[in-house]
Every structure is written in C-alpha cells, then in structure tokens.
Amino acid sequence: MQAERARPWLGTITTIRASGDSEGAVVAAIDQAYAAIAHVHHRMSFQSAASDLAAIARLRPGEEAVIDHATAACLGRALAFAEASGGAFDPVLPENGASWRDLRLQGVRIAVRRTLRLDLSGIAKGYAVDRACERLAAADLVAAMVNAGGDLRTFGPEETVTLTPSGPAAPVAVLLQDGALASSDVIGSLAEYGVVQHRDGRAAPSSAAAPFPTPAFVSVAAPCCTDADALTKIVLAMGDDAAALLRAHDAVAYVHQPDRGWRTIGCEM
Q1: Mean pLDDT, rounded, of the chain
Q2: One domain for residues 94 and 189
Q3: Same structural domain for residues 133 and 219?
Q4: Residue 125 and residue 9 share a domain
C-alpha cells in the first residue's frame, strides 16, 4: 500500500511518499515523520523567538545555554563543515566580525565569545529530511521518499530524480537509491528573492558571495541529506576546490553553468 502526503514545513511544501504492508502502518509512519520535521522547524527557526537560535542570539559574551538535542546535533554538523571548508560554510551570520569560531559546543551546552546570530538554513532542512526518513525506516516500510522543496532522501527501490535549473539548461536525470540529494539554484534565488540564498563565510561581511564567474546550479548526491544540503553551499562557494571534501563524504556535485554546461565534481558516479 502506498500513501503520499504534502504539508507546509521548512519554508516550503514538504511531501512524503511511503509504501508498506498496511495503510494504517504507512499513515502512522508518515505522521511520525512529519512530527520529526515539525520539531526541527520549531527548534531551529530563524524567525521564532521561542527557538534555540533565538536563545543563542540573546547570549552575552561568556554566557551559555542548554539547547535541544536535535539542534545540538545539527549545529555540530554545521561546525564540522565550517572547519573542514575553512569557513566557506559558516552558520554564524557575518555581523560585527562574528564567525563559527566564536561558538563553543559541548553536548547540548553552547557558549559564545561574542553576541551573534545563527542561521542554520543551509543545513537544517537536510537534517529534518534525514530525521523524517529515519522515522519511516524505523517503521519497517518497504520504501519512502521525503522531499522538502528539492532536498530529498529516499530508501527502497531506485528512484529517478530530474535536475531542472531555472536558467536555460537541458534537464539531467539522476538515479538515486538509499541516498539523498539537495540543490541550490543561484538563478532561481535571484529571480525569486533578488539575492543569492547562500554566502561564502570566508568573504568580508560587506561583500556578496561570488562562488562562480557565472551563476550556477548545484545538486549534491550524498548518503544523507544533512551532508548534501551543506555541501551544495560549499560547492557554490569553493567550486572545484570542494572536490576533496565531496569525496570525503562519498558525495558528487552536479554543476550547471550557462557558459559551461553540465559537469560533475567529487566522487565518480
């Protein structure tokens, strides 16, 4: 039996498709998966005054706070990517000289060296997709896909995912099995928001990110969506210099630039 649901979470429409032996088990598992997504949404919201990010923003230098286990896990991955990328990926907004180096995370306790604001939008959506997929897998379903606006993870039979950049480009089909995919579209972000939705943490706070000479579309396939989500931003910031980091995470980036067409960076697929 297969069921599919769509709900507004994570700033987009998040769909879950799942297959199992009984309708009741599938529907219950989907509800549990959405509960996991809702938890991430509420704890890691940039806008909500009740979120962990808001609590961190209220800290003064030297103060610490206890945050949710999920927030701590997601932030831990973000800080690991910040270190591995030399700051190209940075969850701390570049205000008043603040950076990821001003955070100290120990378990669920976090302290700051200066007042700062966190923005986990570059990784939290992927983290939420992973947590939802784990709930579905724990229910012993046959197959499932969680898709949060193009950040997706699947298990079960092989799936075909079509990459469709906003700019003039021929679509590309990617085969995905028991894995994840996340995408960042510079042209699409410019058209919808008027700005790019990523930044290079190594750049001066007043400068705009210039990841490629021309606007790019990047999709990263990786074992988990947390990594895929973060790695798309790293590829946009570092270009071909991200190859070693992609290989270290068993990931491949599908990159399209209007003047160069499609190419891959990272692991061989």
Answers
A1: 90
A2: no
A3: no
A4: yes
Interatomic CA distance for residues 83 and 248, integer angstroms = 14
Q: Tell me the Ramachandran region of residue 156: left when phi exceeds 0, alpha when psi lies from -120 to 50, beta otherwise.
A: left
Q: Which residue range forms the structural domain that includes residue 192?
A: 158-265
SS3 label, residue 95: coil
Report the interhelical angle of 124-138 vs 69-84 (nearest 10°): 130
Are residues 64 and 172 part of one domain? no
pTM, two decimal places: 0.91
**For residue range 20-41, what is the model confidence (pLDDT) as tens digits?**
999 999 999 999 999 999 999 9
Q: Are residues 103 and 133 in the same domain?
A: no
Least Cα distance to 75 among 62, 56, 94, 59 occurs for: 56
Region of residue 13 (phi > 0: left; psi between -120 and 50: alpha; otherwise: beta): beta
| Cα angle: 152, vertex 159, 6; to 5 degrees | 45
124 token code pair: 């939290």
CA-to-CA dists, residue 18 to 128, 129, 258, angstroms: 17, 14, 36
Give the per-residue pLDDT at 196: 40
Q: pLDDT for 106-149, tens place per residue? A: 999 999 999 999 999 989 999 999 999 999 999 999 999 999 99
Q: What tokens appear for 240 in the block? A: 């071909």
Same domain flag for 174 and 241:
yes
Residues 57 and 114 grouped into a single domain: yes
What pLDDT is attached to residue 165?
Answer: 87
Residues 168 and 199 in one domain: yes
